[in-house]
C-alpha cells in the first residue's frame, strides 16, 4: 500500500490529500469505497496504538513506563511493591547534584573562585564589517535569546585593530604582520578574552544551551574537543593538525588567564615563522588550534581541577566533543541534534583555500616528526620552541574530558581503539559524549550511571559502591563525585593508569580504594600462556579471559611453554577482600562472562542479613558468558533471583528487541501522517521475570552487553532512609 500526500495552498492554509494504491483488486477505486477503506485503516491504527501503549504501561507486557527524566535517575525514594515484575522509577537526582555531603563534591559544586578568576557574562564576536547577512543575524540572535543578562560585544576589523593598539601595544607589530585576516582574528580572540574575560564565539555559531547552564562557579577556562583520531597521520588526512585537537571557534575564560598569555606570546614571537608549505596547515599551526591545543593541554597538566581554590592555579575544563564541536552534518558519529550540544558551528566562514596538497606536501615533515624529529624540518627560525611544544603534546597518551554528569569531574581517557570494556570503546564514547554505558549509545536513555549512582541516594557516606571490573573508572568516579565511598577492582595496567590519574587529578583518593586484583570464586594466581606477539585481548587484559582467550592460547597454572607470553592474574574472593561490617549500597559487575564465579566468591555478602547490597548491576552478554566457560546469563539470573533479587529490569539491545516485537503491528502502519512519525521507538527499561529469562538465549552472537539491574529490598524503612530525595527533587513517576 502506498500513500501519497499532496500539498496545495488554499484559503484555509495547507490542504492534505491522501490517495492509496490498492494491494488487492477487492478494494474499489470509487470514492465511496476509498473513504471506507481510509476509515478502516484509521480504526485499525487506533486499535494498534492503544494496544501498544497499553503494553507500554501495563506490567504484564514487561516494560517500564517511559519518562524524559529517566536519564537523571533510576531508583527513587520507594519501590512499588504491588508490581511483581518491575520497579517504580522516580526522579531522584537534583539537577545541581546538591544532595550529598561529600566535602569534595560540595567544593566542586558550590565552590567559587576569587573575583579575578570568575568568567564574566560577556560574549565577544568579530566580523569583517557590521553588515551581517540574515543568516548571521539569526545566529547572533540565538546568543541573545538564550543568554539574557549577558552583554554581547561586536568588533569589526577596524575595532579589532584599535583594541590591539590601545590594550596590547607590544603585540601591534605582530598583529599587522600576520598576512591573513583569519590569523589576525585568531590573535584578537586570545587577546580580548585575556583582557576582559568572558566567552569568545565565531559569528557563525549558534547557541543551543544557555551559558549559565554550561559554566560552573569554579571554571577559569572552558574549551571543547574538535577531533579525535588514532594517529597524527590520520588527523592530517582529515585536515586536522592534532590527533586530539581542541577547537577555538568558541571558548570561555576568566580575564588574565595565563594560558591565553602564553598563546599570545607564541604568536607574537612567531608571526613570520613558516610552519608548513601548506598554507592552511601553516595557519592552523601558527595561530589556530595547533598552538592552542598544545598550550591548553600543557597548562591543564600543571593545573589540576582539584585545586580550584588555589590562587596560583588556573584549571582548564575540556568539554566532550559533542559540547562545542558537533558538525551540522553529524560527522565522525557526533550528532548535532543531541541534547548535549552547547554550541553548534555552521562553518560559514570558508577561510581555507581549496589547495589539494594537504598531507602530501607535509609528508616529509610528518615522517620526520614520526621519527621523533618533531616539526624541525618544517620550522625555520623557531624549530626548538615548536619542537618542544609539540613533542610534549606527542608524548601524551591520556587526554582530559569533562564527564557529562552532575557534579562533573575530569576523566582521563586514551585515544579511540586503545582498550574496550563490555565490547565497547569506553574511551571513545567518553571523549565524544562525556559518558558511556554498555550496549547503548552514550546519550541514550536511561542513563545507567545515573541509575546506579542514584540508587546509593542519601545525604551521608552511609553506603558504598563496589565496582568490579572498573575499567578506566567512570562509574567509580561518578559515585565519588557525589561523595560516596567506592571500592574498585581492576587489573588492566592501561585502565589503572587512566583510572588512577583521574582519581588523583580530581582529589578522589580518600573516596576510592582501588584493588589491583580480579575477583573469582577462588583465591589463586593463574598464569595464562598467550602466543608471543599477539594482542592480549580485552577479556584477559581485565583479568576475565574466554576459554581460548580468543587467541588460541590456553589457561595454565605455573610456567607456560613454547613461544607463549606469560600473563599472571591474581584472583581473590570478594568476601575475603571487603569488610562485611560496612553497608554496601550497590554492586556493579562487568567481568566478561565471569558473573557466576564473582557472585559465588561473594556469597557471604549477598546472603548477609543486613549489609547485603540492595542493587546489583550486571553488564551481561550471552556470548561472553558462554565463551568464558563459566555460565550462561540465565544461570546468573536464576542465581541472583534465588538470592532474593526478584525485582529485575534491563536495558540494552535485548530490551529494544522486545519492545519492537511488542509494537511490530504499530510500526507496520503508515502512521506518519497522523503523528508525524514521532511515536517512541523504544521504551526505557524492560521488566524481567523468571518466565522471561530465556530471552537472553536469543542473543547468542551479539557482542553488545545488556544492563541488568537486580533489586532486593531490605527492611522498607531502612531503604526509604537510604534512598532519600535530593534537595529540590519532587518529580514522581508511578507504575501500576
UniProtKB/TrEMBL annotation:
Q: Does the keyword Transferase apply?
A: yes
**InterPro entries membership:** FkbM_mtfrase, GlycoTrfase_DXD_sugar-bd_CS, Nucleotide-diphossugar_trans, Och1-like, SAM-dependent_MTases_sf
Which example biological process does GO assign this protein?
A: protein N-linked glycosylation
Q: Quote a single Gene Ontology cellular component term.
A: mannan polymerase complex
One GO term in the molecular function aspect is: alpha-1,6-mannosyltransferase activity
* Keywords annotated in UniProt: Transferase
Task: Name the Pfam families on file.
Answer: Gly_transf_sug
PANTHER family from the xrefs? INITIATION-SPECIFIC ALPHA-1,6-MANNOSYLTRANSFERASE
What protein is this chain from? Answer: Glycosyltransferase
From what organism does this protein derive? Chloropicon primus
Amino acid at each position: 500500500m502506498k500513500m501519497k500526500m499532496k500539498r496545495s495552498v488554499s484559503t484555509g492554509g495547507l490542504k492534505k490529500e491522501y490517495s492509496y494504491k490498492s494491494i488487492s483488486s477487492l478494494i474499489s477505486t470509487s470514492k465511496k469505497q476509498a473513504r471506507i477503506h481510509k476509515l478502516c485503516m484509521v480504526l485499525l491504527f487506533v486499535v494498534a496504538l492503544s494496544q501498544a501503549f497499553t503494553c507500554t504501561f501495563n506490567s504484564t507486557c514487561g516494560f517500564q513506563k517511559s519518562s524524559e527524566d529517566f536519564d537523571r535517575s533510576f531508583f527513587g525514594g520507594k519501590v512499588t511493591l504491588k508490581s511483581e515484575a518491575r520497579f517504580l522509577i522516580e526522579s531522584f537526582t537534583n539537577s545541581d547534584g546538591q544532595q550529598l555531603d561529600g566535602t569534595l563534591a560540595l567544593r566542586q559544586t558550590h565552590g567559587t573562585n576569587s573575583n579575578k578568576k570568575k568568567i564574566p557574562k560577556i560574549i565577544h564576536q568579530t566580523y569583517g564589517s557590521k553588515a551581517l547577512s540574515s543568516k548571521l543575524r539569526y545566529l547572533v540572535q540565538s546568543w541573545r535569546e538564550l543568554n539574557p543578562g549577558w552583554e554581547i560585544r561586536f568588533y569589526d576589523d577596524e575595532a579589532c585593530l584599535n583594541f590591539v593598539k590601545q590594550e596590547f601595544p607590544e603585540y601591534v607589530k605582530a598583529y599587522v604582520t600576520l598576512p591573513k585576516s583569519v590569523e589576525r582574528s585568531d590573535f584578537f580572540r586570545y587577546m580580548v578574552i585575556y583582557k576582559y574575560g568572558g566567552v569568545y564565539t565565531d559569528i557563525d555559531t549558534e547557541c543551543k544551551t544557555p551559558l549559565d547552564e554550561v559554566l560552573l562557579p569554579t571554571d577559569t577556562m572552558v574549551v571543547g574537543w574538535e577531533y579525535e583520531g588514532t594517529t597524527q597521520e590520520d588527523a592530517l588526512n582529515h585536515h586536522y593538525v592534532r590527533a586530539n585537537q581542541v577547537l577555538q571557534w568558541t571558548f570561555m575564560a576568566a580575564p588574565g588567564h595565563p594560558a591565553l598569555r602564553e598563546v599570545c606570546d607564541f604568536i607574537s614571537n612567531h608571526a613570520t615563522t613558516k610552519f608548513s608549505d601548506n598554507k592552511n596547515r601553516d595557519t592552523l599551526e601558527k595561530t589556530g588550534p595547533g598552538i592552542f591545543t598544545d598550550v591548553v593541554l600543557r597548562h591543564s597538566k600543571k593545573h589540576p581541577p582539584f585545586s580550584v581554590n588555589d590562587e596560583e592555579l588556573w584549571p582548564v575544563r575540556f568539554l566532550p566533543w559533542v559540547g562545542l564541536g558537533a558538525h551540522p552534518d553529524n560527522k565522525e558519529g557526533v550528532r548535532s541534534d543531541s541534547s548535549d550540544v552547547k554550541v553548534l558551528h555552521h562553518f560559514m566562514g570558508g577561510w581555507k583555500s581549496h589547495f589539494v596538497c594537504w598531507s602530501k606536501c607535509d609528508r616529509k615533515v610528518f615522517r620526520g616528526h614520526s621519527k621523533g624529529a618533531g616539526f624541525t624540518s618544517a620550522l625555520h627560525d623557531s624549530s626548538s620552541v615548536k619542537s618542544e611544544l609539540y613533542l610534549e603534546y606527542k608524548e601524551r597518551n591520556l587526554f582530559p574530558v569533562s564527564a557529562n554528569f552532575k557534579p562533573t569531574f575530569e576523566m582521563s581517557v586514551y585515544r579511540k581503539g586503545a582498550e574496550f570494556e563490555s565490547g565497547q570503546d569506553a574511551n571513545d564514547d567518553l571523549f565524544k559524549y562525556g559518558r558511556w554505558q554498555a550496549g547503548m549509545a552514550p546519550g541514550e536513555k536511561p542513563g545507567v550511571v545515573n541509575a546506579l549512582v542514584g540508587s546509593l541516594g542519601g545525604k551521608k557516606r552511609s553506603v558504598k559502591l563496589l565496582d568490579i571490573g572498573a575499567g578506566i573508572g567512570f562509574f567509580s568516579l561518578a559515585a565519588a563525585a557525589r561523595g560516596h565511598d567506592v571500592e574498585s577492582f581492576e587489573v588492566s595496567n592501561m585502565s589503572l593508569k587512566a583510572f588512577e590519574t583521574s582519581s588523583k587529578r580530581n582529589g578522589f583518593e580518600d573516596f576510592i580504594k582501588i584493588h589491583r586484583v580480579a575477583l573469582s570464586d577462588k583465591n589463586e594466581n593463574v598464569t595464562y600462556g598467550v602466543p608471543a606477539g599477539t594482542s592480549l585481548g580485552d577479556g584477559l587484559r581485565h583479568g576475565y579471559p574466554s576459554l581460548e582467550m580468543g587467541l588460541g592460547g590456553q589457561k595454565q597454572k605455573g610456567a607456560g611453554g613454547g613461544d607463549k607470553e606469560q600473563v599472571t592474574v591474581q584472583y581473590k574472593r570478594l568476601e575475603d577482600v571487603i569488610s562485611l561490617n560496612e553497608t554496601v549500597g550497590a554492586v556493579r559487575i562487568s567481568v566478561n562472562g565471569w558473573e557466576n564465579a564473582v557472585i559465588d566468591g561473594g556469597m557471604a555478602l549477598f546472603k548477609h542479613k543486613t549489609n547485603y547490597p540492595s542493587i546489583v548491576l550486571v553488564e551481561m552478554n550471552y556470548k561472553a558468558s558462554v565463551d568464558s566457560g563459566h555460565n550462561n546469563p540465565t544461570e546468573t539470573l536464576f542465581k541472583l533471583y534465588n538470592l532474593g533479587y526478584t525485582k529485575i529490569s534491563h536495558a540494552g539491545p535485548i530490551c529494544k528487541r522486545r519492545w519492537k516485537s511488542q509494537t511490530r503491528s504499530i510500526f507496520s502502519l503508515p502512521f506518519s501522517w497522523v503523528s508525524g512519525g514521532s511515536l517512541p521507538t523504544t521504551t526505557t527499561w524492560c521488566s524481567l521475570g523468571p518466565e522471561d529469562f530465556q530471552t537472553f538465549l536469543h542473543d547468542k552472537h551479539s557482542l553488545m552487553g545488556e544492563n541488568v539491574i537486580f533489586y532486593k529490598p531490605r527492611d522498607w524503612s531502612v531503604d526509604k532512609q537510604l534512598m532519600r530525595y535530593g534537595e529540590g527533587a519532587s518529580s514522581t513517576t508511578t507504575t501500576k
